[in-house]
Design a protein that fits this description.
single chain, alpha+beta, 7-stranded mixed beta sheet, two-stranded antiparallel sheet, 4 helices
């Protein structure tokens, strides 16, 4: 039986679609070039609020519809240092949760180069080196401390999403040549990606989100 780990603790009988995603509504994913993606976000301070719980629900729903494994608040246009994640590793272990005010600590010196993509850069991806083993510290939406250690895919996700909360996209870490290729490919693939998000929204009985032309 595969293992599911929610907020760092193993659980049983976890549903395929997280309860947050069931409750939430899909929002438009912000795209590269929008100011909210390129500035450090504000720390979360209003812990335990209904507004914050609703935001996490909506972020999970948006991530589901966009078929992502991680999503930061500024990717739905909200200026807060918060991200959600739901990913399954190659060994079948599934990790689900959220972190507010995340800080990354790199553990060890080993790195790994893997293709990385981003829901805010719809379509393409590019190979990128990142530390293989990290620890993320932060809090949950109730204000309780969160400390999660990760390797490989999960570690990459934590780094990618924490970067978002600091106003940095993965393409900012690429060479100029690779970044230019990714942005060119995005223009070619964007429409197809958005059509797919509409299909998935309807599949999950969510209201499709309109995207403006670029």
């Amino acid at each position: 039986m595969s293992t599911t780990i929610v907020q760092g603790s193993e659980v049983e009988d976890y549903p395929a679609v997280p309860p947050e995603a069931v409750r939430g509504r899909a929002l438009r994913v912000t795209e590269i070039g929008e100011d909210v993606l390129h500035e450090r976000c504000a720390d979360v301070t209003a812990f335990g609020s209904e507004e914050l719980r609703t935001l996490v629900d909506d972020m999970f729903a948006t991530m589901l519809v966009a078929e992502g494994v991680g999503l930061a608040a500024n990717q739905v246009g909200v200026d807060l240092r918060l991200f959600v994640y739901d990913l399954t590793e190659s060994d079948g272990a599934r990790h689900v949760g959220h972190v507010a005010n995340p800080e990354i600590e790199v553990l060890g010196t080993e790195t790994e180069e893997v293709e990385e993509g981003c829901l805010s850069v719809p379509g393409p991806g590019a190979d990128l080196f990142r530390p293989l083993h990290v620890r993320v510290r932060g809090v949950d939406i109730a204000g309780a401390p969160v400390t999660l250690e990760a390797e490989g895919y999960l570690a990459r996700c934590f780094q990618h999403e924490t970067d978002h909360t600091n106003g940095r996209l993965y393409v900012d870490l690429l060479s100029k040549r690779a970044r230019k290729r990714v942005l060119r490919d995005m223009e070619d693939l964007r429409e197809e990606v958005i059509e797919r998000r509409t299909e998935v929204a309807l599949l999950h009985e969510k209201e499709p989100v309109p995207y403006p032309p670029r």
